Amino acid sequence: MNAVLTVRGLVIIALVVALALVPLYVVLAGNYFPLTLFTRIVILAMAATSLNFILGYGGMVSFGHAAYLGIGGYAVGIVAFEGVYSGYLQWPLALAASALSALVIGALCLRTRGVYFIMVTLAFAQMVYYIAVGLDRYGADDGMTIYRRSEFGGIVDLSNKIVFYYVCLALLLGSIYLTWRLVNSRFGMVVCGARSNDRRMRAIGFPTTRYRLTAFVIAGSMCGLAGALLANHTEFMSPAVMHWTRSGDLIVMVVLGGMGSLFGPLIGAVTLLVLEEVLSDVTEYWQIIVGPLFLLVVLFARGGIDGLLAGANRD
Amino acid sequence: MDFWPERTVTEPLLHIDRLTKRFGGVVASDEISLSVPHGELHAIIGPNGAGKTTLIGQLVGEITPNSGAIRFNGRNITATPTYRRSALGLARSFQITSLFLDFSVLDNVALAVQAHAGHSFRFWRPARAEKALRDPARAALARVGLAERADVVVSRLSHGEHRQLEIAMALATRPRMLLLDEPMAGMGPEESARMVETLRELKRELTILLIEHDMEAVFALADRITVLVYGSVIASGSPQEIRANAEVRRAYLGEDSAPVIGHG
Predict the structure, then answer these.
(1) Which domains are present in chain A?
(2) For residue B158, how many other CB atoms are within 10 A of its CB?
(3) Which of A41, A170, A257, B260 has CB atoms 3.0–4.6 Å from A267's, for a disulfide?
(4) Where do the domains of chain B lie, and which CATH numbers do they carry?
(5) φ and ψ at B222, to 5 degrees?
(6) Pairwise CB contact (< 8 Å): A203 & B123
């Protein structure tokens, strides 16, 4: 792999280094706002990375991925509300809850293909959304405040915003590494093969549904962990996290950055959220600018921004 | 080559018994019966719309017959799912090239090898570095003459090379029987000749069911030929018998005075 010193490689390295240096800037400038913004970016990039695993590599266009963000977040929030703050309980619970939901939802949705799959995943996400709206004990529509962050017995102190940021960044990079290992393993070959030609996969002897379902569950759990981080970050959980437009945002990040590219979702998340931040200072109607930009990428750069960077090197 | 030592009975490898499939009012397979013994190359011919592809679809398990039975290697597989039929040793090449276009040639064949190398719930080791997958894949490519194209992305291959790759993938699943659905379709004369050579080689080791329009190839290769018209078998026999069969000529060429079955 001599791919590091390409335009694309350099941009990715620069991006990761810049992300690692955000706390330094914050401390020097004495302005904590960028840290809040970038913590959010890093967490949502992790959610987008998990979506990319099934969407970009597996060809499963889930339009309900934000549900797992909410399920992971609510697992942390509900346990905290009941007075238990141990992260050793909260985080595994968030993982288990999102994995189990993904297993049930995936088992039902993977019977369908194409547009039907998109609609059915959306329907399930809406169901989870309305279940959360119905949780009167946990704030229903208004959501609930989480008064203390997850506690890890003095090993890491998540209430320190810089420490928390680095935990999120480490988990994001871990997710990207995990995705890399997965897509290149035998398992990943099957998942990618099923995207490319599911019928042929069956003809050569793969029971593809169980592999696709496993991928769906892995992606759901990864997103659930991102949800646990989000709950800790905002110290608040409400059904809005699972609104279908949030699922749409995750798809936009993946497509904008580059489907089926390891760092694409991160690039997409940074681009979308930084643009949103910058443009919303300029105008209330920032979406008028982001919308056409997204269209241009979809129409003219099918590999997303990451694809453009790879292309820039080739010519 | 050990010739199925576990089987002592003389039951044919593939036995189709009164297979019937209706699509609405159309009878695509009308009580089709045929047997393919071990080691035979059996060709199925018939005009367009004779139901050849429907038959293959039922053999691989993509289409469920309305009635009748399929036995393969001594087992009733009429209701067996596609992937398990593949595991039993029934390999199919597709009529319309159906490959993993965004993968390399070697990746395509390695996937076929992987399909028959235990389960694929292996999440960590890079599959492209596994000799257990790559070596047999390279061997299968060599058998169809594609060895030097191993690292090319499939979408860049020529049509003829696609067909060869189709066969390499079927071979990589280490089948007992190959179902070849028009392997010569769309090939030029040179490519066809090369494919005939490849099939002649494979015929020595494998039982083959060949569906093909290229009559020259069929008559050059087949041990037995079955003629399908409107979903029914109108004749079955050696190439000589088929060539001499008046009904076949009539059905095939739509006229009584047809001189020979020439080019499909």
Answers:
(1) 3-314 (1.10.3470)
(2) 12
(3) A257
(4) 10-89+178-258+260-264 (3.40.50.300), 103-174 (no CATH)
(5) -75, 145
(6) no
Is A214 near chain B, with CB under 8 Å? yes
Report pLDDT digits (tens) over A35-60. Answer: 999 999 999 999 999 999 999 999 99
Residue of A53, A186, A187, A206 to mutate, testing the B interface (most B Cβ within 10 Å of its Cβ): A186
CB atoms within 10 A of CB B103: 20
Asked if the Cβ–Cβ distance from A202 to B91 is below 8 Å, we say no
pLDDT in tens, B72-121: 999 999 999 988 998 899 988 876 667 888 899 999 999 999 998 989 99
Which ranges of B89-188 does DSSP label H, i.e. alpha helix? 105-115, 131-143, 159-172
Interface A-B: count of C-beta contacts within 8 A: 90
Neighbours of A134 (CB within 10 A): 11
Residues 181-210 of A with CB under 8 A from B: 181-182, 184-190, 192-193, 196-197, 199-208
Chain A residue nearest residue B94, CA to CA? A200
How high is the ipTM of this complex? 0.84
Task: Find how far residue B29's CA is from the centre of its chain.
Answer: 18
Interface probe, candidates B63, B99, B101, B123, chain A, greatest A C-beta count within 10 A: B123
